[in-house]
Design goal:
CATH superfamily of the largest domain: Alpha/Beta hydrolase fold, catalytic domain
Number of strands: 8
Oligomer: single chain
Number of domains: 2
Strand order of the largest sheet: 1-2-4-3-5-6-7-8
Order of helices and strands: EEEHEHEHEHHHHHEHEHH
Length: 260
């Protein structure tokens, strides 16, 4: 796995395929492989697919006690620039959607097309503050409760129930509050890009999930309204749409990216 130094942090990434650059930016508590490894092959025939691990995820360490949005923007853009000298497309999921949108606002000369999946623009929604604040505090109180609450937040009720009793237990057992995850949740709690969205000039597709309990679909609709000329689509899914509705999501991405 190649690495690029970004302000003293060794940022790990993968690059596979051929063609114009396509940067996938993962969400909180994940990395490039866990969020996108299962869909990468759908795009490598026509794109060079770049999947970085930003600070606190995968093979990329935390550089400091706190994370900043601009730090993550620098990291993911640097991985794309290490792979291609040409403008590239970005797909961002969850916190990665916020990072991707901020990157498109900061670097309009680099970002050709932007896809924002289950993102948000601001954090003054009281319900959102309550949900994310509890998510961050639970590991200090009860790590098993943190894991159970995480599963309830990220999957739709029907999808999680479909795992069966043993499957649910295994899923919950696999969720652990790593230090990087906690720092990312803290960033989730405070990040706000509402003032950056009007600066986005890239052709943009916003995708929301109607059964998302972590980032309710109203946040995706707000991003759509804030990005001039953006397109919008919804899928009936919980937050983890990359797994709940993989085929439908891939179809949306492919149709948007293949259009001239």
């Amino acid at each position: 796995m190649p690495t690029i130094d970004v302000n003293g942090t060794p940022v790990h990434y993968t690059a596979q395929g051929s063609g114009p650059g396509l940067l996938f930016v993962h969400g909180t508590a994940a990395d490039g492989e866990t969020n996108f490894g299962h869909i990468r092959d759908h795009f490598t025939a026509r794109h060079t697919v770049i999947t970085p691990d930003y600070s606190g995820s995968g093979h990329t360490p935390l550089h400091a006690d706190d994370l900043s949005l601009d730090e993550l923007v620098e990291q993911v853009v640097a991985t794309a620039r290490a792979v291609t000298d040409e403008p590239f497309d970005i797909v961002g999921f969850s916190l990665g959607a916020v990072v991707a949108a901020a990157a498109a606002a900061a670097h309009p000369e680099l970002v050709r097309r932007l896809i924002v999946i289950n993102g948000w623009s601001r954090n003054d929604d009281p319900r959102q503050q309550l949900a994310v604040d509890l998510w961050r505090r639970l590991p200090d109180l009860d790590q098993e409760a943190f894991a159970a609450y995480s599963a309830l937040l990220i999957f739709s009720p029907a999808f999680l129930a479909g795992f069966g009793s043993e499957g649910v237990k295994q899923t919950v057992a696999g969720i652990t509050p790593e230090v990087g995850t906690l720092r990312q949740i803290e960033l989730d709690h405070r990040v706000d890009i509402s003032d950056r969205l009007p600066s986005i000039t890239a052709r943009t597709l916003v995708i929301g999930s109607t059964r998302d309990l972590l980032i309710p679909v109203e946040h995706s609709r707000e991003i759509h309204r804030s990005v001039a000329g953006s397109e919008y689509a919804e899928l009936e899914s919980g937050h983890m749409v990359v797994f709940e509705k993989t085929d439908e999501l891939v179809q949306l991405l492919t149709e948007f990216l293949d259009r001239d």
